[in-house]
Structure formats: C-alpha cells, structure tokens
Design brief:
The two termini are 44 Å apart. The longest helix is centred in the N-terminal third of the chain and has 27 residues. The chain contains eleven helices and twelve strands. With 294 residues, the chain is an alpha/beta fold.
Length: 294
Amino acid sequence: MENRHLRHFLAVVDQGGVTRAAEHLRIAQPSLSQSIKGLEKELGVPLFHRVGRTMVLSSAGQALLGPARAAVRHMDSVHDAAATVAEVRGGHVDLVSMPTPALEPLSSITARLAALHPHIALRVRSALTDRQVLTAVESGEAEVGLLGGNTTPVAADVEVMPLGSQSLILVTHPEAPMLRSGQPLRGSDLEGSTFVASAPGTLTRRVLDDWLAAGIAVQVAVETDHRSSVLPLVTAGVGHTILPSAWRCTAEQLGLGVHALADAPELSVSLISRRQDLTPAARALVDVARAEAL
C-alpha cells in the first residue's frame, strides 16, 4: 500500500467525490479512479458505494478513515523530522476550534509558537460545539482542538489540557441608559431587553434560556451561528449580547458597553489532542499551550 493511495482516498472523502478530488490533487480523474480501485483491490473490500455520480463511504471505508489520516500524518512527520535535521524546522498543524477559544487563547498560543518555531504553520478549522471539536480530533481530521463549555470535557481517546476559564459579560450599545450602573447585572435587571444570541446549545445562549425559564421577559431578535456578526449587530443597535470575556477588548475598541453579569456560569477552555502519533509540529504546539497555561 503506497502513501499516495491513502492520500487519494482521503482527498475523495474530503472533497466529496472523484472529480473535485482530482482537481484538488491536480491529477487526471481516470488516474485517481484507478488509484482508488487499486487500493480496494489490495484491501479486498469496497471503500465506497457508487450511487450514480456520488460516492458514499462503505463501512470498510469508514473504518479506514481514521487510520489513513494517522498514517498520512505519520509520513508527514517523517518528512518534518528529516527537515529538522537539515535545520529547516517546520511542518503544519491541523487545529479545530470553537469561536471564542479561536480568539483567545489561540492568539497567545500562536504568537508564542511563532516566536519559538517560526516555520510551523497552522490550519485552523471552525466548529460551533465541543462535540464537533471532539469528533474532529477523535476521527483524525485534526490533531489538536480548542473548545469551551461549562465543564472540562472527559474523553477516552484524547488528552485534555484545561487552559483556564472566562467569565461571561453583557455587551450593549453605548446608548443603553438603564445599564450604566457599574454593579454586576442580573437577569431581572434586563427585563424587556432584546438580544442578539448564539445558537441553542451554547453556554451564552443557556443564560438567556435560563432567564426565560425563570419568567424573565427577554427577546431574541437575532439568532446566529456566525460569531463574527454578533458585535456588528450590537453596534447597529439590534440588541444586547452575552459573550465570554475574551471578547471584552474587541467590544471596548468598538465603543460598546461592557457589563459584568451576576451568577453567570464561566466558560472553561480546554485544549485536546490525539493521544498517539502527534506530529512534531503538533507536539510543539501542545508544549507551548502547556507553558501558557502554567
């Protein structure tokens, strides 16, 4: 079994079909199809079910997916090790992160990593929930993940490194007169207020849902999966929002009001990584994160 066969298999999976995979790999489509057929012949099982023009992973293909990603990364680590001997220290790290950890602590970790290992590159994917981050790391789509929730995750197949916690803050339009008090605010102080909210299942949305369940009349004007749109919507006067404290600096730079919340849960941030077969670049990132957490 050749390394290129596994790379071709993963390209078909990641690109959603042979045509796009061939374009991505810059090889002829018949050559790619032949490579996949050769891999199936060597393994003795079909890796895809071919339904019309679409290709769906078979159960054998699903079973091969994780080991194939690990094998390709292991081969990449061999090249990285050889490059290190030649004084070309580099490599790349596939990382998946929820929105707030992608702001901080990822910024601090990346800055430190760049200072120590300037030739290591990060490829950062987004995820909205901690479950999506765990799945990406467990399946091998990413080596490292950053997630946040109201508890530190527990997972059998990954290493979990707590990186601290962030309090939740209320961010408001600067012309919200009833919120000028410097005291921490409670849900009852926000009766009748309108909010820009994240999707159900997130920690910040849970605060609003708890207020509603307690009979506090707040209204969700906008629900969005795009965290980057939240502060612009607050700036436009659409409503208040609740965010982890990593967003405080950005909110204040935009001239928005920032208020402490009483009795709000904290966001626990963790870094997770594969227990085995981390590439040298990923190991360097984990070591930097550990030093930042001390």
